[in-house]
Amino acid sequence: MSGGLAAVNADLTDAPHDHETPVWDEAQVRASDLMLTRARYRVYSVAARADAAGRLAALSMVFIDPVYPEWGFQGLTVVSRAHRGHRLGMLIKVAMLEWLAGREPQLRQIVTGNADSNKHMIAINDVIDHWPSWELDVSQVLPAG
Description:
Elements: H1 2-9, H2 26-38, E1 42-49, E2 56-64, E3 71-79, H3 88-103, E4 109-111, H4 119-128
Parallel strand pairs: 3-4
Antiparallel strand pairs: 1-2, 2-3
Helix pairs in contact: 1-2, 3-4
C-alpha cells in the first residue's frame, strides 16, 4: 500500500494549495504509518482502484485518537489527475462516512481543512458537513454510462 499511497500523493502537487506540498516516497509513508501506530490512532483509509494492477484513482484517510474518540481528523484526500472531474472525491468521502458510522458510533466531529483555493474539496466538505443527516443520490454522482 505504501507504494500506491506514494504514487497518488504525487498527484497532490498540482492540486490547489496555499503552501508547498511535499511529495512523499514509500519510506516517508511507512514512517508516518509507524508514528500513527505508536500513537495508537485508529486509521481508516478508503481507496478507489484505477485498474486491476491496483493503482489508486483516489484515497481518503481519517484518524481517530483513542483519547478523544468523538473527534476524527481528516488526513489526505486526493484524486489522481486522470480521474478528476467525476466526483470521485465525494464518493470516497461518502464511503468513509458510512464506514465510520458503523465502526466508530461515538464519532461526532471530523476536523478538516483545505486551502482556500481548493474550491472543489471545499464544495465536497460543504455537502457532507451535515452528516449523518444528509442523503446522497449516488446516481447524481456517478458518470452516466
